[in-house]
Amino acid sequence: MAIDYKSYLSSSDQKHFARWRQSELRAPDLTDEQRHRLSDLNREMNVLMYCGAWCGDCSRQGAYLKSIADACGDTVRLRLIDRETSQDLQDELRIVGALRVPVVVFLTEDFWELGRFGERTLSVYKSKAAREIGRGGDSGILSPRARERELAEWVDIFERFLLMARLSPPLRKRHND
Q1: 3 state DSSP class of 45
Q2: pLDDT value at residue 177
Q3: Which residues of 111-148 are buried (b: 16+ CB within 10 A; e: fewer)?
Q4: Any domain includes 94
Q5: Average pLDDT value for residue range 74-98
Q6: CATH of the domain at 15
């Protein structure tokens, strides 16, 4: 069952709850420019985060997703679903054949799929590649600059899907715009 962010955290094991709260405290604020890009697109969007309360990537990215969804206002609804509670989605949302989290599914107001994104952003993969295969320089994933980069990538992802919904011919016809 998909539930809102606050309910997800309150229903999770308290040892995981603390990590998510710490991620919220470390998350950078959206800039005015980012907030502007996410506003006034005149479309509703449903965002499903398929996650695990135990997952460090989920706790960090969950804080970003909540911040971005909040900045969008009532037009964007973020819901979380725990990987372990949904056997049906496990096969549908595999990445490279594995049960990976987080996977974020973006849906229109009518729950038509706009697209999916998972499970790490490019900046996080670049840091991981530097550490694990010696490709490039590792800027880490927990420094303030790295968190700003990752948040910016999530803003780009949200904006992309919001614009897809805004420019969708069937939705433009429905909304007479």
Answers
A1: strand
A2: 92
A3: eeebebbbbbbebbebbeeeeeeeeeeeeebeeeebbe
A4: yes
A5: 92
A6: 3.40.30.10
Query: Is 31 strand, coil or helix?
Result: coil
pLDDT bracket for residue 57 (50, 70, 90): very high
The terminus-to-terminus CA distance of the chain in angstroms comes to 34
Q: How confident is the model at residue 132 (pLDDT cuts 50, 70, 90)?
A: confident
Q: Is residue 58 assigned to a domain?
A: yes
Residue 86 within any structural domain of the chain = yes
49 lies in which domain range? 5-21+43-175
Sheet-wide strand order for 45-51: 76-82, 45-51, 103-108, 113-118
d(CA 98, CA 91): 9
Cα 5 to Cα 20: distance, rounded to the nearest angstrom: 10
pLDDT of residue 138: 63
- Other beta carbons within 10 Å of 13: 9
- How are beta strands 103-108 and 76-82 bridged, if at all? unpaired
Does residue 96 lie within any of the structural domains? yes
Average pLDDT of the segment spanning 32-58? 95
- Domains in the chain: how many in total? 1
Q: How confident is the model at residue 66 (pLDDT cuts 50, 70, 90)?
A: very high
